[in-house]
Predict the structure of Transmembrane protein.
Amino acid sequence: MNSVSAAVGGAATFVWLGMVLAISFIEAPLKFRAPGVTIPIGLGIGRLVFRALNAAEAMLAIVVIVAVATGSPGPVVVALTVVAAVVLAIQIAVVRPPLNRRSDRVLSGEDPARHRSRAHLYYVALEVVKVVSLLALGCLLQAA
């Protein structure tokens, strides 16, 4: 892997990783503990934040993909890049739509305990896979 591609790819990967850790594992759970934040308010904030996060992630994914594609990477780097990008695509295209439908129902007054959804658990599980793949990818790119 050439040094410029590795440096750019590594930097973008670690920025992406930092954003996911900060939003998904710090901001999202803590916002519901803030005084005065009800479930509908938290959901409304969360939808805006995750829409912005996913847009930023998509841009960073493009930067990482281009950097890896132009850098003659090894198979592990390619595999980790694919894992991170595919997980993000699944989150956006498959998991977020049911989460949005559920939050629409809660925001329109439905009791959140009335219908439990596993989509949130799938999203979190995919976040863990993405974090592990981004951490490994960033380390490999920085070592290149």
